[in-house]
Amino acid sequence: MKKILPIIAASVSLLISCQKEESLVVSDIRADVPTLNASIEAMPSGRTSYEEADRSVRWTAQDRIIAFMKSTDWGRFQIQARYAGEKNAVFDWHGGTFPSLAKENLDHYVALYPYQDGVECSVTDGTYTLTNVVLPSTQNYAEDSFANGSFPMVAACDESDLTFRNLCGVLKLHLKGKQKVSSIIVKGNGDEPLSGNASVSVPPGVGEPAITMAADAETSVTLKCVSPVQLSEAESVDFYISLPPVEFNNGFEVTVIDTDDNEFVFKSAKSMKIS
To answer: Which of 64, 100, 186, 274 could lock onto 169 through a cystine, CB 3.0 to 4.6 A?
Structure first.
């Protein structure tokens, strides 16, 4: 049953889309235990665990990246468990081509968070391209934050300092009501591509990365509440949804679904840009 939000009061705002930087410094790699030292700089906007009170970002358990270490051969690196919740972390090699065996055919280290199978890296005129990247059509709710893997980042730097840059922006929803929310669906009124297959161009250094969505990209993103989220009439509950840079020229639509399968629809015809 669809309703035009008579009960849930929803307002929408865009989080600061300033560029969050995470500095990765490659340690002395031993032949048997290759590692990456990863430190998150003070400026936030997005990633693994978002603490709005002090506006800081911290690594979380099981975080993994795919890294092309001056090579089109890939390696998978995973955070050491003891660094979960920290701004500084050490990542161990967990698969792919062993770094000391990779052929050096790139001028930079290129990396993507979160790790994805099948991603490939190439370079043309000094700009790197990551293909077979997938922006998930379903994201999991996390209280006052993002679930692991919801906010992708890329980097292309030399081996001594690998700095991640955001790929996506964030839609922040404030909801009030009596319902228990099971999921939220966001789509543009112009069927803008929001999830699915994509390629990413990554200039080295501080240049801005760019996403190109594939022709078969999907036009919606669903935020799933694995455990239903109880709303309140007194105080709004915030929901964060990661979206690729896009301009909703004709506005957008948000559908909130509760545990009784009722649908509450918030519609806006106003143009809005996610960046």
So the answer is: 274
